[in-house]
Design a protein that fits this description.
The complex is a heterodimer. Chain A is α+β, with helices and mostly antiparallel strands. Helix content of chain A is about 40%, strand content about 25%. Chain A has four helices and seven strands, in the order βααββββββαα. In chain A, strands 2, 3, 4, 5, 6 and 7 form a six-stranded antiparallel sheet that branches. In chain A, helix 1 crosses helix 2, helix 2 packs across helix 3 and helix 3 runs antiparallel to helix 4. Chain A is elongated. The N and C termini of chain A lie far apart (about 50 Å). Chain B is an alpha+beta fold. Helix content of chain B is about 65%, strand content about 10%. Chain B has two helices and one strand. Chain B is flat, with a radius of gyration of 19 Å. The N and C termini of chain B lie far apart (about 50 Å). Classes of the chains: A alpha+beta, B alpha+beta. Chains A and B meet through strand 1, helix 1 and helix 2 of A and strand 1, helix 1 and helix 2 of B. Strand 1 of chain A pairs antiparallel with strand 1 of chain B.
Chain lengths: ~160, ~80
Amino acid sequence: MKTASFTVRATMPQSIAWKRAADAEGFPSCGAWLSRAADAYLRLRAKAGIPLPLAWHLGRFRVRLEDGTEPELRGFVSPPFGIFHGSGAGPIPQGSTHSQTLVYLPGRRIVATFRVARQAKALAAELAGVWARSGGEAEDIRAGPLIERHEREAT
Amino acid sequence: MSWDSKRSYPVDARCNVSVKATTFQKGRWEKAAKLRGMATAGAFAAYAADMYLTLQRAFEDANHEHHEGLERGVG
């Protein structure tokens, strides 16, 4: 297994607290404890259902539209989610029509349509927690009440 | 640890902690760091370690209070 080594800079109070925790939990070194603590923190966040910050970038993805077609559209992507300008009826190539649709990429499924992308991103951040709890392996995510709340708040 | 036991250190002293991780772990920490606007995986590891200890203490305090409450209730 390939490993990477790096250093973490810390203040003296920080390193003392980490060393104490490492000793108390029986770790051979502070670095070994730090590695375990970083992973444990990520797991705790995912289990607690706290919205996960997502990094969005421009990209292309396929979406199943209401007419059954699956075109490749341009939009914002942050796996496993995408956002395109349009609705279930199809993309809106130009104009200022307020219609931004959140898509669950593994299933190419439309999750919800909002007036602005910010609302779609907020729902994606909450759904990312649900997705992380399922280990990121679920073919589809079912979070009906969560989606309904976001749609209610958006209108 | 890259520092030795001494009688005292300056208040603003800093030290380096060596961490070994799998490339998968490091990649996950780098992604988490980027999402939080941190520069490196090391910065995220330091932040996560502090948060882990804070959450652990909060849990222990809440647990302690809960048990004390139960004991008072029984008494």
